[in-house]
Amino acid sequence: MKQFASLWAKAPAANRIAAAFVGFWLLLALAGPWLAPHPVGAFVDEDVFSGLSARFWLGSDYLGRDVLSRLLYGTRYTVVLGLGAALLASLCGTSIALAASLCGGRVDEVISRLMDTLISIPSKILALVLVAACGSSLPLLLLICALTYVPGNFRIARALAMNLAALDFVAAARARGEGKWAIAWHEVLPNMVHPLLADLGLRFVFVVLLLSGLSFLGLGVQPPYADLGSLVRENISGLTEGAPAILAPALAIALLTVGTNLLIDAMKPEGQ
């Protein structure tokens, strides 16, 4: 704990702000349902689109439900689905990239052309087609969002792996008789971690925006569940009134993505 406090005190202000942003949203995702003052679907207000008050900190929605409670529940779905899809996309993309770069030849050519084909399809169109064909349950949404961003991660990971595979320490490992996967795991991958972590953050932002867009179109998280994009869509009729029910989830999406981008910038090595 003391070591963590020392590192926190020595960290630049930008790093601490970024970490606080991301930590805040992770805390809400984990503890939000227990912090919610009302059940997520309870009708607690006779008025709709009521303003901020001591009883309803963020007002009520189009059915008289507490916006703060629904926001706390919705944050969990947005963060968990976004982080899970980003991790899965990065894991799959990096594994395929390592295999392609170390095998080379026809294997690399076939995999690269397949990924180029997938990446040429706009992510939102690909996701819409997959959701329309397969449905929009929570596990399917996670898999669809991950599949959508595997090609982008593959291209970055492959470029890193190809550069590293041409260096002397990899040639020395081959001369020692190490196998391809041993070289990938012990020599190449450790030198790719930092840029891949930055890419993971970007994939998370992309997935959050994609999920929010799908939910806004009614193809994402379905009732009785709701993510931040669903909360914006269902309260769209309160836009002309400037109701907190629509402003709060839209602001939450913005703060989540901005905070993640701040953390990505803070992760840059010194001197860059």
How many strands appear in the DSSP assignment? 0
Classified by CATH, the class of the domain at 76-227 is Mainly Alpha
Order of helices and strands: HHHHHHHHHHH
Rough outline:
elongated
Per DSSP, what share of the residues sits in E-state strands of 2 or more residues? under 5%
Mean pLDDT: 84
What kind of sheet is the major sheet?
none
Helix and strand composition category: mainly alpha
| Low-pLDDT windows of residues | none
CATH superfamily of the domain at 76-227: MetI-like
| CA radius of gyration | 22 Å
The CATH architecture designation of the domain at 76-227 is Orthogonal Bundle
* Straight-line N-to-C gap: 30 Å
Fraction of residues in helices? Answer: over 70%
Q: The CATH topology of the domain at 76-227, please? A: MetI-like fold
The number of helices is: 11
Topology:
Blueprint: H1 2-10, H2 13-35, H3 67-103, H4 105-119, H5 123-134, H6 138-165, H7 168-175, H8 180-188, H9 193-216, H10 228-234, H11 244-266
Description:
This protein is an all-alpha fold. It has a domain at 76-227: MetI-like (MetI-like fold, Orthogonal Bundle). Helices cover 72% and strands 0% of the residues. It contains eleven helices and no strands. The protein has helices at residues 2-10, 13-35, 67-103, 105-119, 123-134, 138-165, 168-175, 180-188, 193-216, 228-234, 244-266. Helix 6 (138-165) runs antiparallel to helix 9 and helix 9 (193-216) packs parallel to helix 10 (228-234). The model has no long low-confidence stretch (mean pLDDT 84). This is ABC transporter permease. Belongs to the binding-protein-dependent transport system permease family.
